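request received
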Amino acid sequence: MTRQEIPVGVRLRPGPARPRASWHLRANAIVVGWLGLTLATALAGDALPAPRWLLVHVFLLGAVSTAILIWSEHFAVALLRARAPARHGSLARLALLNAATAAILYGVAAGPWQPAVAGAAVVVAVVLWHAYVLVTLLRRALPGRFGHVIGWYVSAAVALAAGGALGGLLAAQPGGGVTHERLQAAHAEANVLGWVGLTVLGTLFTLWPTVLRTRMPDGTRRASRIGLWLAAPGLAAAVGALAAGWRWAAAAGLVLYAAGALTALAPLVPAVRARRPHTGAAWTLGAGVVWFEVALAANLVVVATRPAGQVAAALEPLLPLVLAGFVAQVLLGSLLHLLPAVLGGGPVRFKENAALLERGWKARLAALNLGVPLLALPVPEPLRLLGWTLVLAAVAAFVLLAVLALVRSRTGADADGTRAGRASAWPAVAGVAAGCLLTAGAVVVSMTGTGGPPVTVTATGARTVEVTLSGMKVRPAVIEAPAGTVLTLRVTNADAQRHDLRLATGERTPLLGAGERATLTLAPLAAPVDGWCTVAGHRAAGMTMRIVPSDARSEARSEARSDVQADARSDAGAATGHGGHATAGGLDLAAPMSPGWSPYDAALDPAPGGTEHAVEIRVDDTVVWEVAPGVRQRVWTFDGTVPGPVLRGKVGDVFTVTFVNGGTTGHGIDFHAGANAPDGVMRTIEPGERLTYRFRAGFAGAWLYHCSTMPMSQHIANGMFGAVIIDPPGLPTVDREYLLVQSELHLGEPGGDAQVAKIREGRPDGWMFNGTAAGYDHAPLTARAGERVRIWVVAAGPSSGTALHVVGAPFDTVYKEGAYQVRTDDPGGAQVLDLAPAQGGFAELVFPEPGTYPVVDHTMRHAEAGAHGLFRVGAR
Amino acid sequence: MTWWAVVRFLHVLAAALWVGGQLTVSLVVLPLARRQLDDRLRAQMLTAVGRRFGVITAAVFLPVQLATGVAIALHKGVTWDSLAEPGYGRILAAKLLLFCAVMVAAALHGWASGAGRRALARALAISSLIGSIGVILLATALPVT
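response:
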């Protein structure tokens, strides 16, 4: 020790047991406990909800924040030679911080968001209180050489107040999308560079020379003042600019911060020159500082090269570097140095404890610093695993040694420091272990077999489902498939913020950025499977889905199973039952269409010339079709579309249809426009067979054709219908002609029991124009003001008709089932073209002025459940 | 309120007394005795406490617990076969096994303290305490039927 003694060192020299020592001991036990939890979190990995978020926050908010709260106050008292602030105040802050941390961890990872936001508010209040206490200490203290350090601690506390408030906002999930990403970047920078970074920089002025056992270099105070004046405003600018989305202001702020940090670190270099680091504490601390500088540089590059909305995603790979390389090492290094002093117990015990804690420090240091780059760099999976093993083993070794030291000092205190006291701990440990083992064994026995015998299912088919993640929802929220189906989920993140999808059976996508896709292939479906987004808070916000085997009959065998189904239904309702005007039980009509979707072209071409028409129609019953926004399911089709191809001609034309069954089960076809004995042409043919269906269109009208195989309700409901348009003689040409075929939407696997029940009972999930509910809301039909528009309509049912109406434009011509009901020159008009199931006709209208005109089935519950589209009418 | 409620009450009360008694001895009596009594007095006192607790266990706790437990099981229609079934039966079976293990540990504890093997006695006492807390855990895990 030199003349210029450093108070921290003095206070921490081992000496007779002091009352302070015990409260620090207990407080540090909390830190060690959080470190243990961090390890457990890392090991538990995917078994936890929101594993990444939990790991970061158990460590930073739990272990690191508690440590900072304890030590920055302790250092402030020691450096200022001030009287310690009231004990109960310190304990209250510590207790509040830990309670708030627990609330945040619970609220974000598992529960509703309200506890998380309340916890964030408490954290903000606690650090502001902490800052106030530090300022009061500084005001009351005599002017000294170490007052400058307090400025760093206060700035750090203010940074956490800002970062914590941002965290609370994030937990409440206000905007989502790009705003969310920007706030997240600002939150991370404020907390890591501010709360952790500024505290560490402030502490190093005194801790570093103490650890090296050298004197504090000259010029420290000046460096500290300049450094803080650069770093604090720089950080404030960076955080504000990131939140606001100003890239260059953020980069400039970070440059200022980095300059401040380097200025503050400059005096440490002569200290190293004066005395080479020789203890584990010194080397660990030094390595931590080096990683801090590396992280700062990488951070600067990320912020400067990306728009603010992408910073959070790009910072993600840096996280292990910051957490393990910088924060964990600084924490471990400090504890290595401080714990022996805190544990007390006389000089002999101090040496014993120091030796115990530093045991094998070279190997631990090497392991951790080899592991960190493996975690941060894009290396193959086995190497990453090795990195995790190295880092976790190093931390675990420390936790183990620290716990040993803590236990030793406690039992030592109990038994007046005699060895007998230490020895007496072992029966207790053995007893606890034996009791826990017995209980665990009994619990395992009691849990066996509760899930019923494991169901093994042989694969019976395969199906691909498009899954879209956006707007805090997984679409579709429920996938129904027959048991045994091998499902492939093609997951697309259609949001501006990051999401992933994880299934209860273990399959998971990586974290997907905006627009990224991933594919999950599941084992043959045996039991209901839950899925959710693991990003913190998103599951609670409703980003869940469920995959349900559809053979309801076998499930009805046990009550428990049918409960599960009821759950699935109510879950689906909860997931999609709110959010916009256009919702209908289970359908979210305002949801975006899946990427790459294009509408069925409603524009109707004029009849081709000639009186003979040859057509081939091929059944395809494995098509996956977008039946409602974001909802894709298997449909049965003529020629791959719903409705099938349109046939158009004049009265007397002859149609020769080659009908091919390219499907997986028997199908047939029935043209209402023709006159044939049903026995031959309408017979059901098996897959691979074909027949020729020749009919003469004897009458004008809009005719339905549909699959003629029983049960027809199912074949029609699943998409096997289309229109034949036979122009009445003398039909005038108009500016535009559209065809709308209206039908019911029954969600679920075609032919599944649940879907069949809905069809039989006439409980559709929605209604569709041309095969998609609300499709023309998302891709409006077009026209110009003053143009005459003819809308052909066919009601395919199977069980409900239509009352077609265009809002804002009365029909001046209506033709229904072979007869004009209103002619263009008549004084009368019509408001609705009403059609029973399988009827057809057309209506004509002239749009009076530019605007957006809804076209609806005026049976309002049909309109609100998807029989709704838009005409976008431009100026002439 | 039926007579079965009284039987259940006795079962729960006896369990509370036994586990609570162990906890009180471990958390309240032993630390104070260790701190405030000299070695000779402490040994005497602990032996006395152990003997009294053992008598209460054998004379009151075990008879009450076995009688009420068997009565409740019969009332619920538990059979030997049903103990193997997953769910209620298997949880009950695990609980009974753990209870037996706890009783064995408690008896061994009595023997070990009598034989002067203090370390072993302490380990057995603590494992018996933890095990009996496990019994309560399993009791609360029994599905309500």
